[in-house]
Amino acid sequence: MARLLGRLIGLMACLIVVAACSSETSPFPDGSFAVVANADIGTGASRIQVGVVGPDGDRLGGPDVPVSLRIAPGDGGEVVAYDAEWIWLIQDIVGLYKTEAVFDAPGVWTVSVAPGSGSALPATGFQVLDPTFAPDVGDAAPIAPIDTLATKPLDHLTTDPNPDTDFYQLTLEEAFSSGRESVVVFSTPAFCRTATCGPTLDIVKDVKPEYPDVNFVHVEVYTDMQSPDFAPTPEFLAPALGPEFWNLPTEPWVFVVDANGVVTARFEGTATAEDLRTSLG
User: Fold this and answer.
1) Can you give the pTM of this predicted structure?
2) pLDDT score of 271 more than 90
C-alpha cells in the first residue's frame, strides 16, 4: 500500500510538472501594451489599427504572432473578438494589427490584444467619432484646389524621391468629374511624422499599372516647399488638408473615390496592395 501511495504521489508530481511546463506563455513580455494607431475611427463598420509596444519601447508582433482584438464599449458593454491581420508599415521593420470592427455608437471604446497563447494585454481606450474628421465612406469627395504639372514643375508638387508623373496630371475636380474611379494619396515622403508616407505612396504606385482606367493622384501635404523660409509646419500645410476640404487629422491617407465622386474606401496610416485591389474590384 505504501509503495502504491508512493507511486501515486510520484505520478501526481509528474503531472504537476507537465502542466507547468505546458502552460501557455505570451509572445509579449510583461509590461507590453497596445497603442491604437489611427485617430479617425467612425461609427458603423470601421477599421482599427493597433500596434504592440514592449516595456523597452520596441515594436512587437508580426505575421507569425496571431492575435485577436477584443473590442468593447467603454461603459462595460459586450466584448466582441475580431481576428486581426498583420500589416507591415515599413516592410520587415515595423507593422501593426488591423481589423474591420463595428461600432454602434460614438464615444470611448476599449481594445485588448489577445495573442494565440498567454494572457491578453491590458485594455486600451480610444475614441469613436460621429462624424469623423476626414470624409467617411458615402460622403462626397471634397473638390479641393491642387496644383498639377500644368501649373508647377514636378519638384514643387512632391517630395517623393522617385515620383510617377501620372500622379500629378489631374486636379481633383478633373479626376472626380472624369467618370472614372480615382485613388487619392495624401502624403509627404520627406517630412512624414510617422515614416510611413513614402512606403504608402510606393504601395499605391506599385498597384497603379494593374488599373489603367483609374485616376491616381498624389497630394503633397505641404506647399511652397521652394520658399526660403519653408518648414514642415501648419503654416505651409496644403489647403486641401484643411477643415474646409478633407480635414485630415493625420498623415498619410489613401481614399478611393467612385465615378460619381463619392468616397468608397478610406485608409488612415497605410493601405496595403490587397486593400486597394479589394476596393477597386
Assistant:
1) 0.88
2) yes
